[in-house]
Specification:
Elements (H helix, E strand, L loop, with lengths): L11 E2 L2 E2 L1 E3 L2 E3 L6 E5 L6 E6 L3 H18 L4 H17 L1 H12 L3 H26 L3 E4 L10 E9 L2 E5 L7 H12 L3 E4 L6 H14 L6 E3 L4 H9 L6 E5 L3 H8 L5 E4 L4 E5 L5 H13 L9 E7 H15 L19 H16 L3 E2 L5 E2 L2 E2 L2 E4 L16 E7 L2 H10 L2 E2 L1 E5 L3 H10 L4 E4 L12 E2 L1 E2 L2 E2 L1 E2 L1 H7 L1 E9 L3 H5 L1
Parallel strand pairs: 2-6, 9-10, 9-12, 10-11, 12-13, 14-15, 14-22, 15-20, 19-20, 22-23
Antiparallel strand pairs: 1-2, 3-4, 5-6, 7-8, 8-28, 13-26, 16-19, 17-18, 21-25, 24-27
Helix pairs in contact: 2-4, 2-6, 3-4, 3-6, 4-5, 4-14, 5-14, 9-10
């Protein structure tokens, strides 16, 4: 079934996708649209509505009133609807995956995997939510000095209100549901602002929630230009929490957002530290997986290899041999390396490559680019004065820095503004734990490439990589607050006589 046909027909108005509010698919009053460019063809693939600030205001009001009723809906009923949405999402994986291929040039097999993983995430969240939110806490007063047992304290978790969810282009379905599902199970309402590249996949995903039969106004999806509605959304007084995944825009949002809980996962410069005793075949496989899957367009991609000099030549040869096996081409062919998301991204990556060339990096492959398609490139003998040593290319270009000691590797890792993930390869588990402790990153993987999943694991960054912690359990907890009720009993002398 092609996208925009059959069950998805109602989300289209001619060739323009509608936005979603109050349980209905609507066209924007502006009459304007935003074009979505296919990264492979570099031509307009889809068009979405350009919502106005006035429409955002309406959506916020709807979300606020729908949330009040939803908070009173029994927890098991919320979970039931989430399970239903998960099943519908998986059922429609083919047309949604097709959108991912065309909008963000995600290889076809990875696109299907993203949709299925998203369905699994929704179901797990429903189960986890029932467990977490079904439990309260009971405290007694005589545990604190000077008190009798005359107060009973009951605590439970209550929803925050309206959650603004802003996912990035690279996982527009998975990183949207990782915000939507915890918000809904916890009793919140949702306003989703999808990325422009990835908006149509997001609208298809929202339609699956629509088909599951959630109450009107509870889930909303507004599309439009960030320049017109971005700040308006993030600074809106109706928003009670923002969950954002993306680049350094998040730093600006956090400064403007005001006194509400923020969950921010921003960029990374994930370091891979390789010790002399590491299994180099394992390292090479993980560098390929970590550095080049989805053309390196992942926050958790390996972004810099810090290898002990004595094994550097051997490792570089192994990685080079594996890079040569990567297929390059359109996402429809399931190529390993597909076009990066936009021309401006490709230009930025090229700037880093040319800077490295000028400053004397060794090119392990010839630099090759056609349009948005950049061939995979390993840069050896990268030095700290090169931009690629610090900046995040978000493309299939990976720098190798040779180090003389573990301390040098840790120092480079910690000197970065980023601190999302990192990894260390060694057969000595004691060393691995000590290095992990010393690395200033939210997560360290031992003998594996960085990765966000499994989705119930905590996931967080430090420094410019973000605030708050994600992962299903953490998100549910973050999207609730504690409510306390204290029962005051008469004093013992009064009751006992």
């Amino acid at each position: 079934m092609a996208a925009g046909t059959g069950v998805f027909a109602e989300i289209l108005d001619g060739d323009v996708y509608k936005y979603y509010a109050d349980g209905e698919w609507k066209t924007a009053s502006s009459g304007k649209t935003v074009a979505i460019i296919n990264p492979t063809t570099r031509k307009t693939q889809y068009k979405v509505q350009a919502c106005s600030q006035e429409e955002v205001n309406k959506v916020m009001d709807l979300a606020k009133s729908a949330q009040k009723l939803w908070a009173k809906t029994p927890l098991w009923k919320r979970a039931e609807l989430l399970h239903k949405a998960a099943a519908i999402l998986k059922e429609h994986k083919a047309p949604i995956a097709e959108c991912l291929v065309k909008e963000i040039a995600k290889p076809a097999k990875d696109a299907v995997t993203e949709v299925v993983r998203s369905g699994d995430l929704i179901s797990y969240t429903a189960e986890e939510g029932v467990r977490i939110l079904g439990e309260g806490k009971f405290l007694v007063s005589d545990s604190f000095p000077g008190n009798e047992r005359t107060k009973y304290c009951l605590t439970s978790k209550i929803p925050l209100g309206v959650i603004l969810a802003i996912p990035p282009f690279n996982y527009p379905v998975n990183l949207a549901v990782s915000k939507i599902a915890p918000a809904l199970i916890a009793g919140n309402s949702i306003v989703l602002k999808p990325p422009t590249q990835g908006a149509v996949s997001g609208l298809h995903m929202i339609h699956c929630f629509h088909l599951a039969g959630f109450p009107k106004g509870l889930i909303n999806c507004v599309t439009g230009k960030g320049s017109e509605i971005g700040d308006f959304l993030t600074m809106h007084p109706g928003v009670n929490c923002i969950s954002f995944t993306g680049g350094d825009t998040g730093i600006g949002i956090s400064k403007k957002a005001g006194m509400i809980p923020l969950q921010m996962e921003l960029g990374g410069k994930d370091a891979c530290i390789v010790l002399e005793d590491a299994d180099l075949d394992l390292v090479a496989i993980n560098i390929i997986k970590g550095g080049f899957s989805y053309s390196g367009q992942r926050c958790t991609a390996v972004k810099v290899v810090l290898v002990i000099e004595s094994v550097a030549d051997a490792l570089v040869e192994k990685v080079k041999a594996n890079v040569a096996k990567l297929t390059v081409g359109p996402p429809e062919d399931d190529s390993d390396i597909t076009p990066v998301v936009s021309e401006s991204s490709a230009n930025y990556i090229e700037g880093l490559v040319l800077d490295a060339k000028e400053k004397g990096a060794t090119f392990c492959q010839e630099y090759k680019r056609e349009g948005n398609l950049i061939w995979p490139l390993l840069l050896d003998h990268v030095r700290p004065d090169m931009r690629i040593a610090w900046e995040e290319p978000f493309g299939p270009v990976l720098p190798v820095i040779r180090i003389n000691s573990v301390e040098e590797g840790i120092h480079h890792c910690n000197a970065s503004n980023f601190g999302l993930q990192g990894c260390v390869f060694t057969k000595d588990v004691n060393k691995a734990i000590l290095i992990s402790d010393a690395m200033e990153t939210g997560t360290v993987q031992i003998n594996s490439a960085p990765a966000r999943g499994p989705d119930h694991f905590p996931f967080q960054g430090i420094k410019d990589s973000g605030i708050g912690s994600q992962g299903i359990t953490n998100s549910i907890n973050m999207m609730t607050k504690v409510k306390t009720t204290v029962i005051n009993l008469p004093s013992p002398s009064y009751t006992m006589g």
